[in-house]
Amino acid sequence: xxxxxxxxxxxxxxxxxNVPDVLINGPFNIMNNxxxxxxxxxxxxxxxxDLFSGKNPPRLRGAVACRLLMPAAVANQLVRTLAxxxxxxxxxxxxxxxxxxxxxxxxxxxxxxxxxx
Length: 117
Description:
Elements: E1 28-33, E2 36-46, H1 48-53, E3 60-71, H2 72-93
Antiparallel strand pairs: 1-2, 2-3
């Protein structure tokens, strides 16, 4: 039986269904099972009922927002690539040793601290 070899040519990527972005801001879980890696991401937000009833502060609820399933080899490459991107981003955002980091005045910042008081 012939074995299909992976292509070495560039793969064209398209997004014909306009897959939406997903906000992930809560706990996540990673499980390795039989060479497949399952990653479950969550989104934490205020409880809808509490918001509309005026409860202050509202309870926070977590909901599964996305589940990814991938071969371990792809997960390993994802980890390496993510680490490289984050390290490079940290290096470019660090001020030089003789520079001080300046912050805009509080009045010019687009968002203030979030408070439910």
